[in-house]
Amino acid sequence: MAKRSSLSIRIVEGKNLPAKDINGSSDPYCIVKVDNEPIIRTATVWKTLCPFWGEEYQVHLPPTFHAVAFYVLDEDALSRDDVIGKVCFTRDTLASLPKGFTGWAHLTEVDPDEEVQGEIHLRLEVVPGTPARRLRCSVLEARDLAPKDRNGASDPFVRVHYNGRTQETSVVKKSCYPRWNETFEFELEEGAAEALCIEAWDWDLVSRNDFLGKVVVNVQRLYAAQQEEGWFRLQPDQSKSQRGGPGQLIPIIEETTSTDRRQEVATNLLKLFLGQGLAKDFLDLLFQLELGRTSEANTLFRSNSLASKSMESFLKVAGMRYLHGVLGPIIDRVFEEKKYVELDPSKVEVKDVGCSGLHRPQTEAEVLEQSAQTLRAHLGALLSALCRSVRACPAVIRATFRQLFRRVRERFPSAQYELDLQRTLSLQAPPVKEGTLFIHRTKGKGPLTSSSFKKLHFSLTTEALSFSKTPSSKKSTLIKLANIRAAEKVEEKSFSSSHVMQVIYTDEAGRPQTAYLQCKCVNELNQWLSALRKVSVNNSGLLGTYHPGVFRGDKWSCCHQKDKTGRGCDKTRSRVTLQEWNDPLDHDLEAQLVYRHLLGVEAVLREKHRELSGDTEADAVPAGSGEAPTDPLGQLLQVLQDLREAHSASPPGPPPSEPSRLLELQT
């Protein structure tokens, strides 16, 4: 096999793929990875479960490669692409097939805990000690770890398990190539465990930590060698016995929360996950729990469960503005018309109708029919407005309902659910803000290269920032919302003009570009900055620093740096926005409210933990034991205990000083 330097690949077709989209179809494409490195992506075949690709490639393989994997995914415009399945060929498998492989290969499901990659650098040694020898494990660094976060990186840390004890390294933020250089020691006792387990994890604030891979070391072999150092390839965890998911915690939180507080807790949790961009994942977990205890699809979300309350909060928080914009004008018109509607025959009020001198009383049948017609007209207008507004509906709501539809279809495969959105897909999203701005000339090659002070019409939607000569112009240029990296003010001296802002974004080739836009006044400037920051607040790759000046000649006007692509000299202010009722959520505040609630029911949670563990005497989280709980509820209680200790250890802040000047405002 070592002589083989290349591999011929022909991806022909697929058949009987599962439907991943709401229309009962999928948009499949293939990705080929060599040792988790993507090297090939086929075209997407739209709306089919039996795609034909017929694409050929010649791949050069390193002599030390481990496996070639073929992933089939469903492309999704609103959320992450769904993984349909994969086929994997190891190097040994390919070596046993001198004539290659031709035929159909069965797709297997993808377990995220098996999708590990990278290596970890360890130094392991047995050192003499009194009364017993000690096992020393130095966790030095890791490389090529799997990116688990939305920013394309991970926040890795390492857990070292031996003989019932667990120790952890610090967390390295936003890195797939972390360095720790931390050392841990364990006593080597007679009859102790024969395996040392080193696990790499991605730390997450609000969801469960993601597994990155593990290495298991035979301690008996280390006895003989006394010392071993090198790079160890991370392996998947097949057992999953030491991990628990948040799905086990949700029913417990629901059970320990009184009915009158369930809505409040659901709202706090929903806002917390929504602020972190994880609302769809949180609600999907609740969907599965709700469907597991539902016998009929039409009874979903009719109880006082945490799922029902969370769904109610989700629609209010994420969809209120959308409904106001779409249904508000129709509801206002209903009230303005003040048409009499009554469908109950026992409550019908018969009125005179006809012209002057020819009055006659309406019959009860006429009143009922007229009321029915009026009601049908109102409902028709509401439904029509909703159907036309599919592109105006927030992306997170569309993605969440699509996931709900999939879960319901999995749970009730025989039920019929039909929804025709075909005629609504061509409609554009309504503008969040629009108006006339002036573009300043820049030297970049982005779409905003233009003469100085050129006047154009701008429109900001939840999908893009576009501009054209006039509001009715059919030809326009746009910047995709997902490509925006910052929206900040520009120093007045940069253009000798006031009220100039800059929109920093990446073009289709991934190159950084900057658009300089001038507003009419400071209020308009702040309104545009606020709108741009709000619609892009969850973008990946947001900048932490920027240059408030411009790059003119060979240096920045603000800090005189000569590196055009270097780190900015001022911090960005992506969270500074105008106060509005639909402002971005403060997930830090929601986390504090959830923490306060959990403290209030901590005693009940501890009792539940003792009940589940079968130990009615011992404390749920022994203080100072040095052992990390492995069950989800125990981990939650440990977090509560750590937070409480951290709060009690924090020194009180200095008293606020008396201000020397006061400003009186009316708001």
Task: Describe this protein's structure.
28% of the residues lie in helices and 25% in strands. It starts with 5 loop residues before the first strand and ends in an 18-residue tail after the last helix. It is globular, with a radius of gyration of 31 Å. The chain folds into 4 domains: 6-95, C2 domain (Immunoglobulin-like, Sandwich), CATH 2.60.40; 119-233, Sandwich (Immunoglobulin-like); 250-397, no CATH class; 433-571, Roll (PH-domain like), CATH 2.30.29.30. With 667 residues, the protein is α+β, with helices and mostly antiparallel strands.
Low-confidence stretches: 240-244, 352-356, 417-428, 443-451
Rg over CA atoms:
31 Å
The overall average pLDDT, rounded, is 79
> What gross morphology would you assign?
globular
Helix and strand composition category: alpha+beta
* Distance N to C terminus: 76 Å
Care to count the β-strands?
Answer: 27
Beta-strand level of the residues, as a percent range? 15-25%
How many domains, as an integer? 4
Strand line-up of the largest beta sheet:
20-19-18-17-23-22-21
The DSSP helix count reads: 13
Major beta-sheet overview: 7 strands, antiparallel
Question: How much helicity do the residues have?
Answer: 25-40%
